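Board notes (copied after class):
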Amino acid sequence: MVTYELLHIDKNSGARRGIVHTPHGDIQTPIFMPVGTQATVKAMTPEELKDDNAQIILANTYHLHFRPGEEIVKEAGGLHKFMNWDRPILTDSGGFQVFSLSKLRTISEEGVEFRSELDGSKHFISPEKDMQIEEDLGADIIMAFDECCPYPSTYEYTKKSMERTTRWAKRCKEAHKTDQALFGIIQGGFYEDLRKISAEDLKQLDFPGYAIGGISVGEPKDVFLKMLRYTTPLMPENKPRYLMGVGTPDYLIEASLAGIDMCDCVLPTRIARHGTALTSHGKLVIRNKTYERDFTPIDDECDCYACKNYTRAYIRHLIKCNEILGFRLLSIHNIKFLTNLMDRVRIEIENDNLLEFSKEFYEKYGYSKEEE
């Protein structure tokens, strides 16, 4: 089973430094988890992910259900063997697809009927079916089936959705048969009373970990921060706290300051495919002509493979020519930038200094706290 060990609380911010123990290794927290939607982090090999110090990756239940199918992954020995990754894996529930594929699905008390975006065929996923899929995939951490509300949503709709998510969580726990760690997902949109009810009801189910779902879905940043800071203290102190779908540097720091242990996002590889790099001085759109004769690394403070061996000018050339290597190098860099950032966050928590570090980082990164 998965357990959480609290090592230190930053006395000035309340940020947590801990370890999540899993069957495939320990996860030092706070942590950023790269997303491998189709059992692969786009453009990267497992060996490159390890070189980037990725401790755990996330795979997508919905997409793997359609391709190649969980039965094939199970036959291969589970996700770890299938994708040649011997470190921890987390699979999401597919609940975000309930949100993002709103034109292709119908929600009922029993579950969700999907129309495949691949061929239009109809499929039905209930909480029980979701558990079967995730158990066949074989990740260390699996998520309860939930509904993620869009922003904005009415109080009445959000309340019904939150209550259904709780009922689904109960059904997931009843259907769950393996020793994988099943995490519950707190919903409730942007209504504090609903978030509190959701957290309290899910805590009664005694999951080994808890996630905040349904924020970072297009709302203004001040709204996001208010709900993050309200909801996190409602989560158990002795279990992992996971904020779903967050990956920009400032959001990762704010999540850590709020007491979150785990975050994930597709951002680093997605923006790499559009020719953008994360750097210590902010985003760098490397495809711009400005960098045509720039023979410096992407970021002179980064120790990734791309920065140690290639220049902005060369990577820009690759991107402009649509060469795969350019997207790979930017992906390698962006993930390493975020894992390096979280390495630093953990050190600053241990030194009771994350709040001061965040101010210094934002100033250098070109982000002002006043923007909140």
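Comment from the instructor: The first strand starts at residue 3 and ends at 9. The radius of gyration is 20 Å.
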